[in-house]
Amino acid sequence: MAPPPPVPAPSPTPDPGRGGVRVQLSGLRRTFPGGLTVLDGMDLDVAAGSFVALVGPSGCGKSTLLRVVAGLDRPDAGTLTFSPPLDHTPGARTPIAYVFQDAHLLPWRSVLDNVALPLELAGVPTPERHASAQALLKEVGLGDATSRYPAQLSGGMRMRVSLARALVTRPRLLLLDEPFAALDELTRNRLDDQLLALWKELGMTVLFVTHSLSEAAYLAERVLVLSRRPARVMLDRHLVLPPERLPALRADPGFAREMGLLLQALEQGEAA
Ligand SMILES: Nc1ncnc2c1ncn2[C@@H]1O[C@H](COP(=O)(O)OP(=O)(O)OP(=O)(O)O)[C@@H](O)[C@H]1O
């Protein structure tokens, strides 16, 4: 008798906590009351799970762009599409998280309870939300600081709490608006590395606004250099750099070449 056919190995179950969303903007326009047009015909296609940095002159509309993508502001024209569509049903994975330059922590809540807040608002029971918050805090190097209060933390620690709070719900899209700009360079570099590690682990799409070209080149796979207002894309650069970003990269000639290209486009965008 012929032996029974081999049982096929089960295909790996996709991790529901991983993965990003594709973001497409088409013809986006935002004019503020009084007639100031900040975005005018902005087109952009951001691949799911990619890490994209946005740089551009002060006031060109980077924060406006993030706010529109986050749904905190409405465009006057154009379309914004997410694929797969965002799921806003209660209990579903939170689609979008936003990290600002200011950590915006609640001073009367402990570090653990600050990070657990989005889960509390989603109705997650205390033991589960504390376990998730504790795990994230450990990943950002604050596993020992869970019972402290925001006033007892340094600026870098506060930003790590803010980052942990943004990621505790495993968002599909993470928007960061100059999150580490107020920190000293070494702390910023360390936080950049932690952000990269979390991105690799969770696979969400990241849109990162920064004024630092070196931070943009170190973190991102793709950098968009915007012109002054109304923002146009001066350069859409898929960086030719190794996917593994290690501190030694900052001294690499390839890194300097990318920085040069970004700087040139930024200067052209300022003058445009
Ligand atoms: N709600 C608003 N009402 C009116 N004008 C606004 C509003 N929000 C932003 N602006 C103006 O729109 C322009 C773009 O602002 P935005 O914050 O998007 O720029 P940005 O590129 O993020 O700037 P920066 O790099 O300095 O943070 C600025 O001139 C700003 O003053």
TrEMBL record:
One of its GO terms (molecular function) is ATP binding. Gene3D superfamilies: P-loop containing nucleotide triphosphate hydrolases. Residues 23-253 form the ABC transporter domain. Keywords: ATP-binding, Nucleotide-binding, Transport. It holds the Pfam family ABC_tran. InterPro entries: AAA+_ATPase, ABC_transporter-like_ATP-bd, ABC_transporter-like_CS, ABC_transporter_ATP-bind, P-loop_NTPase. This is NitT/TauT family transport system ATP-binding protein.
